[in-house]
Amino acid sequence: MWRHCSTSQEILQGIHMDIHYVYIAGAFGVFSNFENAIRFGIIPNFPNTEFRPIGNGSLSGANAALVSSDYMNIAEKAARMMVYIDLLVDTDFIEEYSAALKIFGKPELFSQRPAVEITLSSK
């Protein structure tokens, strides 16, 4: 998730986005402790941002569009604004994604990660 956010910011370079809320759908959003998710490097730490779980976002959105013409217009406008970004051809994404597969990701990117020292010993 972190790499996706940073890739989006790189693609939109030069556009200042003041992010107030990050909505996270599904079970991950409902059952996550966002402070721990930031600490472990699963999601980035956006300063002054509130994380909000929304449950089943696709079902809620589809229902809203069906019962309200205003929401249907919003959905149609959002659909026209969508762009496709093929991350599998982005070598920077592949490199960062591979690095992020390890718990805690890259140390320089996650300032809130806990200091953990693992010592292996043979008996």
What does this structure look like?
With 123 residues, this protein is mainly alpha-helical. The chain has one domain (2-109). Helix content is 46%, strand content 9%. The protein has helices at 2-11, 26-31, 34-39, 57-67, 69-81, 91-100, and strands spanning 21-25, 50-55. It starts with a helix and ends in a 23-residue tail after the last helix. The mean pLDDT is 77.
**Biggest sheet, strands in spatial order?**
1-2
**Main sheet makeup:** 2 strands, parallel
Q: How far is the N terminus from the C terminus? A: 39 Å
State mean pLDDT (0 to 100 scale): 77
Q: How much is the radius of gyration in Å?
A: 18 Å
Shape: globular
Order of helices and strands: HEHHEHHH
Helix content: 40-55%
**Strand content of the residues, in percent?**
5-15%
Assign the structural class, choosing from mainly alpha, mainly beta, alpha/beta, alpha+beta, or little secondary structure: mainly alpha
**Helical run tally:** 6
- Poorly predicted runs are none
- Secondary structure tally: strands: 2
Query: How many structurally independent domains?
Result: 1
